[in-house]
């Protein structure tokens, strides 16, 4: 009998539309592998619980991005319900989504991170930055480069706009140079991609608009730089306890070296996404990658 997979998409974050788009591709890929796929758009938690009771899936494929989907919330819920789910568990998801916690773990692994500090929007507006220009302001917990502002001149401060003044933010030294990313699949990093965006940095629009960003794979960088990126990605994947797949993002220049920006424990799976592209380079096609996520699905056991 075919394994039943409930594919969870949509959700409540700013990345809802991306999740819905990716869900269609994932569903098609899993069906080609013979899985019984139930596609569910998460808009109401109680409705989701009713669907779980009715469908009794063998696995939940976590196709949610951003808050509520990547930050340990849905993972903790499925742990309690004892339903196996794809991607990383609750602990890795909580730490990976929190850029401040990720930096602490990275430093402990001797992975270089940008100098900076955590504060709130309110405190930042009231007291100003404790850093010299240029610097970056970004949410502590959010995905797809949502709410990231590069401050190079004082006038750039007018760009900063957050709806909630209590939002926790990171203020970090701006690292110029090459934008690099590395997928880690089952603990191994295979290749580095350089992202050459028409815009200043690889933001939400650059990630999800066809033609805005050019992917150079493998990246045209020195071999020792590529090896450092891959080594860092494997270390962080292992230290956080990530499952199956993760993606780590870096900046590199001659003066600063390789600097970690963040890790994605539930990286994008749209047709423009980097993980399927690197997986293909490593010999794993899209449908097989989706199937590996299903077959490696787990939940925390209640002992």
Keywords:
303 residues; alpha+beta; five-stranded antiparallel beta sheet; four-stranded antiparallel beta sheet; 10 helices; 34% helix
Could you describe the 3D structure shown?
Helix 1 (16-32) links the parallel strand 1 and strand 2. It is built from ten helices and twelve strands. The radius of gyration is 19 Å and the shape is globular. A five-stranded antiparallel beta sheet has the order 10-9-8-11-12. A four-stranded antiparallel beta sheet has the order 4-7-5-6. A three-stranded parallel beta sheet has the order 2-1-3, sandwiched between helices. Helix 1 crosses helix 10. The protein has 303 residues and is α+β, with helices and mostly antiparallel strands. The longest helix has 18 residues, at 223-240.
Shape category: globular
Q: What is the average of the pLDDT values?
A: 92
Number of helices: 10
- What is the string of SSEs from the N terminus onward? EHEHEHHHEHEEEEEHEHEEHH
Helices and strands: which structural class? alpha+beta
Cross-sheet strand order for the largest sheet: 10-9-8-11-12
Radius of gyration, Cα only, in angstroms?
19 Å
């Amino acid at each position: 009998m075919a394994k039943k997979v409930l594919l969870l998409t949509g959700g409540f974050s700013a990345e809802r539309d991306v999740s819905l788009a990716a869900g269609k591709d994932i569903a098609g890929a899993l069906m080609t592998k013979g899985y019984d796929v139930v596609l569910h758009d998460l808009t109401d938690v109680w409705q989701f619980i009713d669907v779980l009771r009715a469908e009794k899936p063998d696995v939940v494929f976590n196709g949610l991005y951003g808050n509520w989907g990547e930050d340990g919330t849905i993972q903790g819920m499925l742990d309690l319900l004892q339903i196996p789910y794809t991607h990383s568990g609750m602990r890795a998801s909580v730490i990976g989504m929190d850029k401040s916690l990720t930096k602490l773990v990275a430093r402990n692994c001797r992975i270089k991170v940008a100098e900076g500090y955590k504060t709130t929007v309110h405190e930042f507006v009231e007291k100003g930055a404790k850093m010299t220009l240029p610097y970056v302001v970004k949410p502590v917990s959010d995905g797809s480069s949502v709410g990231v502002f590069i401050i190079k001149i004082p006038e750039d401060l007018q760009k900063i706009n957050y709806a909630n003044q209590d939002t926790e933010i990171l203020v970090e030294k701006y690292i110029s140079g090459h934008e690099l990313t590395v997928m880690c699949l089952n603990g191994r990093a295979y290749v580095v991609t350089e992202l050459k965006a028409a815009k200043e940095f690889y933001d939400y629009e650059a990630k999800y608009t066809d033609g805005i960003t050019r992917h150079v794979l493998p990246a045209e960088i020195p071999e020792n730089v590529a090896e450092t990126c891959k080594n860092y990605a494997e270390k962080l994947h292992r230290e956080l306890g990530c499952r199956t797949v993760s993606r780590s993002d870096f900046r590199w220049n001659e003066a600063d070296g390789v600097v970690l920006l963040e890790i994605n424990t539930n990286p994008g799976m749209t047709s423009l996404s980097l993980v399927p592209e690197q997986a293909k380079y490593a010999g794993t096609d899209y449908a097989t990658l989706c199937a590996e996520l299903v077959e490696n699905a787990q939940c925390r056991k209640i002992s």
